[in-house]
């Protein structure tokens, strides 16, 4: 299933990249997107294109937030202390991501991975949206540059996929803002996916605190997914 989704997502992303990121049109398509072929082939092409556009639009909304260009470099938490940051956090708000579609009661726990190299184990747990089945994802975070400890590099423990995983802001005791970005190299040009989380040490955050965090995100021009944040259901979790 993961392999199928990767192949489908890559083909749809290439189509999206060509139409949204200024990629070159297909050899069968003119500069204005018109098919250069006989009528029968043109009709089949038009039908396929409609299907691709519909599926591509759904994929972009549900699975990943895609943007043109390389990952930006927003300001991160100064003097970040991973020791203070470790422990359990609750997801308060998040943007949509493939691994967390419909997940409720989501917690994320940060702890020493035990490898002796400073890497951090990140375990995200929650319940599915329908049968409320328990779901768990284990990831490993490393710090490429010790001078910038808030800029983590995250990877799935059994895959080589890596992504930026940066702590933008936290007071360690109440809230945290985490931003993730991953490069996509397509058609000799860069695109990227972004995700964003607001975490809390408790299952809820005061509205006043959330408002302040939203206002802070509005000042970060490089973060384009802030308006896509949605609340995570943390009710009836015990």
Automatic annotation (TrEMBL):
Keywords: Pyrrolidone carboxylic acid. The keyword Kinase does not apply. GO terms for molecular function: lipid binding. PROSITE patterns: LIPOCALIN. SUPFAM superfamilies: Lipocalins. It comes from the Eukaryota. Residues 80-218 form the Lipocalin/cytosolic fatty-acid binding domain. This is Apolipoprotein D. It comes from Trichonephila inaurata madagascariensis. The gene is APOD.
């Amino acid at each position: 299933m993961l392999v199928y989704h990767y192949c489908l997502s890559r083909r749809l992303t290439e189509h999206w990249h060509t139409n949204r990121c200024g990629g070159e049109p297909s050899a069968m398509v003119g500069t204005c997107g018109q098919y250069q072929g006989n009528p029968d082939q043109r009709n089949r092409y038009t039908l396929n294109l409609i299907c691709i556009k519909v599926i591509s639009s759904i994929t972009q909304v549900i699975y990943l937030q895609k943007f043109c260009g390389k990952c930006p470099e927003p300001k991160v938490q100064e003097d970040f202390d991973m020791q203070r940051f470790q422990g359990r956090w609750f997801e308060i708000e998040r943007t949509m991501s493939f691994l967390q579609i419909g997940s409720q009661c989501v917690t994320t726990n940060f702890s020493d991975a035990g490898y002796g190299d400073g890497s951090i184990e990140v375990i995200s747990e929650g319940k599915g949206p329908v049968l409320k089945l328990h779901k768990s994802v284990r990831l490993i975070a490393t710090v490429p540059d010790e001078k910038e400890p808030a800029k983590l590099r995250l990877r799935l423990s059994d895959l080589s996929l890596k992504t930026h995983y940066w702590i933008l802001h936290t007071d360690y005791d109440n809230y945290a803002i985490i931003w993730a970005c991953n490069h996509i190299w397509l058609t000799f040009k860069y695109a990227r996916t972004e995700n964003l989380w607001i975490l809390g040490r408790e299952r809820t955050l005061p509205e006043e605190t959330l408002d302040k965090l939203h206002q802070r995100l509005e000042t970060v021009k490089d973060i384009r997914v802030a308006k896509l944040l949605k609340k995570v259901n943390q009710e009836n979790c015990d």
